[in-house]
Automatic annotation (TrEMBL), chains A, B, C, D:
This is Alanine--glyoxylate aminotransferase family protein. PROSITE patterns: AA_TRANSFER_CLASS_5 (PS00595). The keyword Lipoprotein does not apply. GO terms for biological process: glycine biosynthetic process, by transamination of glyoxylate.
Length: 378, 378, 378, 378
């Protein structure tokens, strides 16, 4: 009767009430009910992102990647861009910009590490960038970049600060206004806990003042096409550029309502506490954490196996009721797996994860010690 | 107790069973259950499109527009493109290509008309095009382009034939293989009857033989990024490029299963018959059809009002339980509204639409004659 | 793609929103959420029954029959009971009382007729009864008994007036207080439009003043066991005697909320108008109505076939998307079928019913005339 | 964000997939889909009860109590009945039989204990009974009666052996055929894990051979009325006596399918193991188990508090995400609470229960020791 808990890195730990809110076969994008849901969803984005009224939120049909690519709206040919990449999803910016005529500098780190302060400062001091991009939580390793420390420094070396918060928003502390970030990106299906189907971002409104049609973006990714829709939608008046993922919007509304009930403060605290208990349990079984100490995220944990193949581990763990994700960082190929613990994750889920890891390991090595559970009852 | 029936043009006439199939909070893209659903959904696309094995189907997170823009995968700078546009969504290609360095020829028609045969032949004889694009059913007016007659002619004047079937696939006869179309585009939420959230297309496999990285597409729209995912997914093995709209895929699987139960032959016949009864009823009340005779689609009908404002009409019709869409073609601004009758549309829905139109009109003009219902009982 | 509409006589014409409200795997009978729903459901019963505060509503797990049998709470051995039965469900009282030591007088009518005024007055004048029972709408034929005319007369000839409103409450005018009925019975799944699973009744509170443990009821049917639960539940404080059908209660709450939105006045009007259109359509095809003129209900219609077997008719009608019920009155065995048109029934459903009848008949007799639809557009 | 887990004693630990299967607004009792579900549900009852073909299963709209009362079908006035009651629900038989003219002997135990062997043998040796009734698991205390040891003894002293398995069937080992029980009773919402709304029982077919209309049952509780329906329904042919709880039947079908997937052997083992871990954890925190050692059930656990009021405990535990049930045995009023761990209960639920107990206790007494979790990782 083992029912599988989804602790993949995206989506992860879903919720029936949130998904059932998206069952709406009689709703189009022009109904009052939808317009109201869209307005609340947009306002919810501002809430979880920590944005004041100087930002405009966007819900774009698609996924986080489309939201990432939409930063091209504010770029022109030959613009200088600095990407601080701590893994596979940081490197995704390289894939994106390879399709455009821009001048990209990308700093890369070893798996589990952040790019070093020295490397960052070296690149910053070398030139002024149009855009500096960093990934808040790197989904491929679980490393968290201390964007709150760097935002002020970046400001002096670029025009536009972009943060990819796909794996952080909704679970980590995000203070877009306070940190003065220009564009913060995420997606519906991770720590916000709605179904996949929407790229999400907030953009500082004043960026549009300098908007030029000469920008390098395509059509769907050109935020100028979406801007009037979001402006009228946040006011409850709807709008149309391309058909929105209607069910996902209703689910987002429900998810944000529950996030407000919990408050972002307590939500961030919960993610922090649970991820700490998880790491403690993992280490007590003799396994390693991919992320370097002090840089562990509260939403994704990479776990280093000792002498067991990660594909086999993930496959075997299914028997104990948890779906983990294999590791995808090429440096550690086959050597680690990943745990998503975001959104609606509970203490019981963490317990279930540890139990599944323990039992999967024990099949492989009967001497595996039981995980330390003391922190669970605090 | 009037419950609203959604007869907007997209989405339109939803179904609970299809949507409930998408409630799956414990499913990520790596589960066996999802891989199986994705495989069946992809095969279902081939079925409704009339494709043999020489085509590869794609499900792209987003909407029909992203599928449209993805044809850039097969274009290079300065390529010559001919677009035969019969309305607003035909003109959308102009918006798309305005972002790219291509040489676009666009033929436009009057509202309700197809571009004339003379105009088409004129343009065809002037040069050889890399790509010729037409819209099967123009959502803004309900006009259907006789692509089955033109496909062979286009073949002689271009390399790649693209058809935008966003408003036709699932309701109109589509024979991609037989007509030798290279790329046929649609979306999840129209005549296929699943929720919005996915752009869908089929691509003749041999197009990828000439693929060059020098193409003009962006990153998300570059089908080469999606190709390996679709190739493994259709075999039931899954794959990843960006997070798929998981619930929409489960809904698509369910929708295609029901479409196979009905068979495409009967489905096309049903759409044809119901749309005929609808038009007959409309005309019997003294209203006009936007589409020129002989070019009416089976999925979308534009209705010309006499002396009533379309916005007001659509608003008032809500009282009688039907949500119609206002007209959006600028030539007929305020003068017509649109009816979506696709996917799961039934005889009762058509009856309800006529009843709502009749009662809305009668409030405005008490002498409005009752709609002719004879064809309903055939 | 023909989707079946349920026009059986119970349940009939369901609603997804009402049923989805009953999906509550995390709710027991002690939760605040359930207590609140139970309170609202009980108050809703009073609303649809037209009861003031001198009545106590009951929701009993089971079906209408258990609610019927619970009138034994107010009966003692050898009590005299008069049942006015207009069909199979009136006769059900005979089955019930055959299990108890009471003195039953039952008046029966011919199929489609009410017991005659002469017969009723004859029995009334013969003795004084402890209880007089009549069926508001007889489900087996669709005949409606004019209880509003008889209530005052009954009062002079008995202590307790019971009305079985299983097939009427929620669709017909019911004024329990105004008519001074002592016990009005119904069930969740008919014109109230919730799922089956609950017997429902209202009882004049002062009946409990004369309650004696010497009554003939069993344990589950003894309303004295349920009384304290309903008294605390209506106040929002819950209570327990046997486990309630939790999901059905949540569905009832939702159903009553929508009934209040519509108002009972408009709901009764809607049922009246739609049933009139239905009968007119049926007659125009040359078929007969089982109920005698002037006694037709707004919720159930029995249809007399000419030379076609009713079982075959009902089976064939499924092909045209409607599930009707076969007739069950032994006098007319095989000669008629029944249509349930209650609760969430719409004009479209009536249209669909007529269409299904027409097409089923036409297969049998090609000369069947088309149904008259004029009244539909009023 | 604490989501409440329902660990009340009935219903307890629900499941969305099982409940969503019951959303069926277009299904009446005459549809092929329902008939098939009803047949599978009836066969599922035989499976979980361990019945061969000499038993007939019944699904009766209502609750477990109505199933209990239906044993009157096989009783006549003045019949001698022995009830072995280990608590409040055993005593419920006293309430039931107080309504009938039978000669009842009821043996009662102290809270947490079973009636002693001596007392049972004393009563058995005193006379021959028509019916001997025992409760397999007493919901008010969690005590399990070793019916497997007594069945043979009972056989020598009575005609009909009845077991109330409301709180055991689906979670405890039940071998109706092997133990030669005549009537085994349960309900849908406990260890079977479907929603409440149905009383369930199996009856040895040969009991009907001696059936007499002179029995003491009422109408709804007279199994002879239901027998033909169940006989045709198990064959997939449907039938009607009173409207079945249609959604509950669909849910039961789904629940039984999953029970077969797990197998009853593994299901019983799971309940046994989890309840053992739960009791171990409870004791390690210094709390007591209501049930005497050796008589603990695998489905319900009563927990003795030390110096804390049970009402307050249950209320406070809600803050930690678990809904427990207060104790209802009058001997221990206010001194204990109850935990339902049935049906879909998982290791994580047990962990959550222990965590909630620990934290609730710690608020009250900071020196409460952490629960022993060692057995959890076995």
């Amino acid at each position: 009767m083992v029912k599988t808990t989804l602790m993949h890195v995206g989506p992860s730990i879903g919720d029936y009430d949130v998904q059932l809110a998206g069952v709406c076969p009689d709703q189009g994008f022009a109904s009052e009910k939808f317009k109201s849901a869209m307005s609340e969803a947009l306002k919810g984005i501002n809430y979880v992102m920590g944005c004041d009224d100087s930002y405009l939120p966007f819900i774009i049909p698609g996924s986080g990647t489309i939201a990432m690519e939409s930063v091209t709206t504010f770029l022109q040919r030959k613009d200088k861009i600095l990407v601080i990449s701590n893994g596979v999803f940081g490197n995704r910016w390289e894939g994106i910009f390879s399709r455009y005529d821009v001048e990209l500098t990308i700093l890369k780190s070893h798996a589990g590490y952040c790019v070093s302060h020295e490397d960052i400062m070296g690149s910053l001091n070398r030139k002024h960038y149009k855009m500096i991009i960093s990934t808040h939580v790197e989904t491929s390793t679980g490393v968290k970049f201390p964007i709150e420390k760097y935002a002020k420094i970046f400001r002096e070396h670029c025009d536009i600060i972009v943060v990819d918060g796909v794996a952080s928003v909704g679970g980590e502390l995000v203070k877009t206004s306070e940190w003065d970030i220009d564009i913060y990106i995420t997606a519906s299906q991770k720590a916000i806990g709605a179904p996949p189907g929407a790229g999400i971002l907030v953009v500082k409104k004043k960026l549009f003042q300098d908007y030029s049609d000469e920008n390098i973006s395509g059509y769907f990714t050109n935020l100028m096409n979406w801007k009037p829709v979001m402006e009228t939608s946040i006011e409850g008046n709807g709008g149309y550029f391309a058909t929105p993922p209607i069910g996902v919007v209703f689910s987002l509304r429900n998810a944000f309502a529950r996030i407000r009930d919990e408050t972002m403060e307590k939500r961030v605290e919960r993610h922090k506490k649970l991820s700490r208990s998880l790491r403690r349990g993992i280490k007590s079984m003799g396994l390693g954490i991919v992320a370097q100490e002090g840089y562990e995220s509260s939403t994704v944990t990479g776990v280093l196996l000792k002498d067991m193949d990660a594909d086999l581990f993930v496959k075997n763990a299914l028997k104990f009721g948890v779906e983990f994700a294999v590791g995808v960082h090429p440096d550690l190929k086959g050597k680690y797996f990943r745990i998503g613990h975001m959104g609606w994750v509970s203490r019981e889920d963490i317990f279930k994860a540890l139990n599944a890891i323990y039992n999967t390991m024990k099949e492989h090595d009967p001497k595996t010690p039981m995980p330390d559970m003391d922190s669970f009852f605090e």
